[in-house]
Amino acid sequence: MPASVGQEPIAPAEESTGPRGERTKTVAVRLTPAEHAQWLAAAEAEGRGQIGRWVRETVTARLENRPVAAPVGQAREMRAELARMGSNLNQIARALNISALGGKQAPAIEDIARSLETVREQLGLVRDELRGQ
């Protein structure tokens, strides 16, 4: 479809970036003070300090038919939870290694399997949350 008067055709992404991939185009939107306050509040609620970045990420996610990224605060909490789970896995591995080296009986394989399954389930929940499901 040809561009309307005053509109530029949309160029492929590789043509609209600078030599180092930087963004070179600007889009301006006029807002009422109330609209600006709403947009700013929405960006801040999602942990975004820059309203332009929030708008770009939100619109891009919609155009790509994918959920908008989880708010920054939630992402930090999820990363912290993942770190705790990783620490637990390291503790399990360490206990197994110490048992093997010291000639002690290792924890029952069933207990280890249950622990690993719990970790897998928790990782799945975190993955789904990060994907916005």
Please tell me about this protein's structure.
It is a single chain. The chain has four helices and no strands. It is mostly helical and 133 residues long. The model is unreliable at 1-5 (pLDDT under 50). The protein starts with 32 loop residues before the first helix and ends with a helix. The protein has helices at residues 33-45, 51-63, 72-102, 109-130.
Mean pLDDT: 76
Radius of gyration: 24 Å
Total strands: the figure is 0
Structural class given helices, strands, pairing? mainly alpha
Give, in order, the helices and strands.
HHHH
Q: In oligomeric terms, what are we looking at?
A: single chain
- Tell me the span between the first and last alpha carbons: 35 Å
Counted by DSSP, the helix tally is 4
Instruction: Give the amount of beta strand, in percent.
Output: under 5%
Report on the biggest sheet: none
Silhouette: elongated
Overall helicity = 55-70%
Low-pLDDT runs:
1-5
SSE layout and pairing:
Layout: H1 33-45, H2 51-63, H3 72-102, H4 109-130
List keywords for this structure.
single chain; about 130 residues; mainly alpha; about 0% strand; disordered N terminus
